[in-house]
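Readers of this paper often ask what the protein records in our data store actually look like. Such a record has a labelled line for the sequence and another for the backbone structure tokens. Nothing more is needed to write down the fold, since each code stands for a local backbone conformation. The remainder of this section carries one protein's record, kept here as part of the documentation.
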Amino acid sequence: MTSRSDDIRLGADIGGTFTDIALDVRGTMFSTKVLTNYSAPEQAILDGIDVVIRDAGISAAEIGIIIHGTTLATNALIERRGARTALVTTEGFRDVIEMRTENRFEQYDLNLQLPTPLIPREDRFTVKGRIGAEGQELQPLDEAALEEIADKIAAGGFGSVAIGFIHAYANPDHELRAREILARKLSIPITISAEVSPQMREFERFNTVCANAYVRPQMADYLARLQTRLKDMGADCPVFMIHSGGGLISVETASEFPVRLVESGPAGGAIFAADIARRFGLEKVVSYDMGGTTAKICLIEDYAPRTARTFEVARTYRFSKGSGMPISIPVIEMIEIGAGGGSIAWVDAMGRIQTGPESAGSEPGPACYGRGGKRPAITDADLVLGKLDPDNFAGGAIKLDTAASEQAILRDVGERLSLNAMSTAFGICEVVDENMANAARVHAVENGKNISDNLMIAFGGAAPLHAARLCEKLGIDQCIVPRGAGVGSAIGFLKAPFGYEALASKLTRLSRFKATEVNALLADLKASAEGFVRTGASGRIVCEITAFMRYAGQGWEIPVPLADEPFGDDAVAKLKDLFEENYQRFFGRAIEGLDGLEIEIVTWSVKATDVRPAVARHELTTGRKTGKPTTTREVFDPVSGAPRSYGIVERDTLCAGDRVAGPAVIVERETSTVVTTSFDAVIQSDGAILLIRKGSHA
């Protein structure tokens, strides 16, 4: 009987259009893309595994570990396809998730519509009982009322329960007792906010516990089904999930806290880009991940992606901040827009070409897929422009219909604007590229950065098609398209550490700081975080301690990194100095001259991570000139505004140091890299493609 091997690892990423599989067999990578199966998502994973183990010449039983990321939780929230959920909350707080923060995300829109809350008002139940901000009980919990609420939920056909009480982050006793009472009469999952998101700010915390409860039955069922079917095919190995913060957690933890999976796929992509940055010693990088449904932009500094404690899902108003569903969990910070290969192109009331956020996905897919799709997608535009080979898409697994793309583009867009198919396709791609460029600029400015100072790393099935043009718009001179770019997120899963971030809000002013209490709190957080990591790691674990601090009266905090050691008698002075130093780094100067201005700590964070082996370092090379490609194809050239003969080069025929002069298209199984007239491409020692702007001092 064949036994599994620890040095054979598989990453599986379910996206909105494709499911990507990457298999690492002792350092050799095998990969494939399979159309996502919406009715049975696990089937696409099994189909992809069959392909890569056949290519690798191994059996499923030899796989040592499977690491999985998915957009299923995200899609369930966006499309409102979760379980009917009941919210049990403190009396007087029934409408918190509907009232939100009362901020207007579009200041001058008189007809502004707030997003519909995840749980309707008739499914929210209130109970007396009150915990104070310091964690003290102000009013006992009404247990008799909870018994009645349990009867109503049992008779109401609910599939899940969320419990969110005021100030439960400071003292979870009421939530724990409420769960105990409800569980005696209910056989459905019950989620409490103190375990999902023990942070202050009730709107974000209540919304997070509601989101977790909403998707929990569906995700638990899917993960159980996936494990069963993997074992049936012989892959009886540990399965771990990548969470939104970029670490790995067990399937059992993911089933209980599925809201942690909401940004799991994009997190894998950011880890992939960070690994490339570390490999080449690049300290300032912008990652560009464009798949079938969305495009993601993430800033990476000092080989690590930026992180945050909250993010928004399903923004409803032009991707405006505040118009979505806030989720209060640790997450890799990025900006995501509805611009993927399957994003639909259309014409608005003002006669402008628009794309997304609606996507054709894999069912029915873009018009060129021949699976019933009739509306034009970005992939259709790329095909008409000549960027794609209709006979060699996804390794030849999908034959593309150019005529169908032209018909869809003309019918829905071109005829309305009196344009031919080629001009319309160029207009669609220009809108997409400009939208992505604007998103990248905004993301950089919001973080106080200049986007043109960065090197771009492009991956995902569609990103290499658009990366050079995007660099032209952003003023970026260099872009790396790594080997395996088409399945970058799945490869990123294999690079992810076992990691978990534990958070706790405890509002503490420095004037009342007690080292013994804080040391005990941090010890508990460290034990919790390390406990999650130990489910999959046996080696050394390192912890990062962060205090989120502010001047008293400010609305938001800044992160202040701390040493992993207990606080002593000099803690207050050290914390004050560290806060002012970081405040000055964020805002230019600390606030001085105001007597009695207090500094306070809002939230503590402990991030535990197992130590990963160091990556081999490579130096970027500008290469040497090679002969002209023997094969050419007509590709629309954005500089001249007309089709032009582009050289076609197979990536596998190129060696380290080879240089391809643009314009050209470098093709491979999962994607194609378009080298525009402004760029040349050089193959690096690890097989990556480096796009270099002609005339730059690269």
